[in-house]
Task: inverse folding
């Protein structure tokens, strides 16, 4: 695999450690000599680091502690008449499990672990809630009615990933270009480019989104068809938009 071919399609899965060994080895070998893919991997790894923040925290049920303690509370057992002269070991194993000397420390440790775990959950629930991922949905226009897309913005608003599907492949001299703008910016010259890309034969592509300002400061997102090298402002047909 040469540096010219790149491994862009595999980098998201590589960042999530979901490739098989052979594929991961090919990506790792390519990354050694390809600065572009190294930069894209670093961006995805930063995004992966934010995934834990996307799951909202929840307080444990109020009766969790009571239920846990009830589950480990000893139950009454049927009384067994011991032998007339039981041995030391038989006396030990005739006791209920929770009364045996070897079990008592383990039971105490288990109870302590459960209580500490409950305490940690409660403390996490008291912490101020952190931000979550933002998602921007893009829908097709009359030019590409079946196309769809989504932009995922990290909790801190600094990183983003664009995923599109069902976009038609373009001739070599053309490419798709993502545009970002704020409320009130209607002039095309004020729109900021978020990246240039092409799609695979099935119309799919994912792209790391770059912008001079935090992504969550933009409100309008659109994709147009432009020259392969990109354009300073939108000039071609719009194919996806969030409004």
Result:
């Amino acid at each position: 695999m040469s540096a010219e071919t790149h491994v862009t399609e595999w980098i998201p899965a590589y960042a999530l450690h979901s490739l098989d060994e052979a594929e991961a080895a090919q990506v790792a070998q390519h990354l050694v000599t390809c600065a572009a893919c190294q930069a894209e991997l670093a961006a995805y790894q930063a995004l992966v680091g934010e995934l834990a923040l996307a799951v909202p925290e929840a307080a444990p049920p109020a009766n969790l502690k009571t239920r846990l303690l009830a589950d480990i509370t000893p139950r009454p057992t049927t009384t067994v008449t011991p032998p007339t002269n039981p041995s030391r070991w038989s006396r030990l194993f005739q006791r209920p499990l929770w009364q045996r000397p070897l079990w008592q420390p383990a039971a105490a440790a288990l109870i302590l672990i459960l209580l500490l775990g409950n305490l940690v959950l409660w403390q996490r629930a008291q912490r101020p809630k952190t931000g979550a991922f933002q998602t921007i949905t893009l829908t097709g226009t009359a030019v590409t009615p079946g196309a769809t897309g989504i932009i995922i913005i990290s909790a801190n608003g600094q990183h983003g990933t664009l995923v599109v599907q069902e976009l038609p492949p373009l001739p070599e001299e053309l490419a798709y270009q993502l545009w970002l703008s704020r409320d009130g910016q209607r002039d095309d010259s004020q729109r900021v480019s978020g990246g240039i890309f092409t799609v695979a034969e099935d119309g799919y592509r994912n792209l790391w989104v770059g912008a001079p300002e935090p992504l969550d400061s933009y409100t309008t997102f659109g994709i147009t068809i432009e020259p392969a090298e990109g354009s300073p402002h939108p000039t071609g047909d719009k194919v996806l938009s969030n409004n």
User: Anything to note?
Assistant: The radius of gyration is 29 Å. The mean pLDDT is 76. The helical segments are 11-15, 21-31, 35-49, 64-72, 88-93, 103-126. The longest helix spans residues 103-126.
